[in-house]
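Progress note, project year one: complex with S-adenosylmethionine.
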Amino acid sequence: MIFLAAIKPKRTEGGICSELPNYQTFRGPIIWSPLCSGLLSIWTTLSNMENEFYSPGEQRAAQVNRLFAAIATRYDLINDIQSLGAHRRWKRRVASLAAVKAGDRALDLCCGTGDISFALAKCGATVTGLDFSDAMLAVADNRNSKLKIKNVKFTQGDAQKTPFAAETFDAVAVGFGLRNLASWEAGLDEMARVAKPGARLIVLDFGKPDNALWRGIYFTYLKLLVPLLGLLVCGKPSAYAYIIASLRDYPAQRGVEARMRQLRLVNVRTDNFIGGAMSINYGEKPQSDGK
Ligand SMILES: C[S@@+](CC[C@H](N)C(=O)[O-])C[C@H]1O[C@@H](n2cnc3c(N)ncnc32)[C@H](O)[C@@H]1O
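Model obtained:
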């Protein structure tokens, strides 16, 4: 209303010409130019933002830890807004692919606030959720103090080097986690190591669509709108600009699938959602690896 009032031309006496803006009295540009330049400067800032939470190499773990400490309490809310709730459906899909039953052991790497751990536990498995962020684990524990699910526990550790013996778990899942590791390959190798023969390995993460036009649209959404959401909901645009930065060096569904094959997993496949913007990689550890 304020804008409409501001751009409405002031009437002067006279015929049809009186309907036209009078350059002395039409104040639209006075309002619009700061508005447009404000939007343009937000746009330019977001699109040129160097990411304070992302650099490959030795600093990576410390930066990622700092990022999740900063957003832990708003993490679930932003997930819901950013995906319009769809992340819940993808995580249920992860749990169903894990195909666990009562008595099975399941591992949720990079468990964060525990969504996938809880979904696996509801299927009857005894679940360990592992994450290196105190802040995210505190939210997971807090949620469980309300949910009171007994067959899940959360523990701190590095997903690339877990404290578990080889061949411990019937299913190993990671949701939006592999991309955050200093070495995603080391994370996937670790998943395969702790999986029992016959166990299911499942990786859910942002993907890279094959279609160039769709990829462009989707990357623009990640580059501009998602950081804007981060700014509005938790005052941290760069924490959400991190997603597109971290995708740069991550090979996404195709690379993960190739690595699963290198690891000699069987029944390897990729499920794509929203035209490949989101994906689930699936593989099973062979009953006997033939070595
Ligand atoms: C985007 S969140 C995903 C949380 C949860 N899996 C989900 O799907 O909502 C990524 C999580 O990975 C954790 N993380 C990153 N690097 C890790 C590492 N090296 N070891 C263990 N956890 C790590 C972060 O602390 C964060 O909680």
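The first strand starts at residue 105 and ends at 109.
The chain has two domains: 4-47, 60-284.
No further modelling is planned for this target in the current period.
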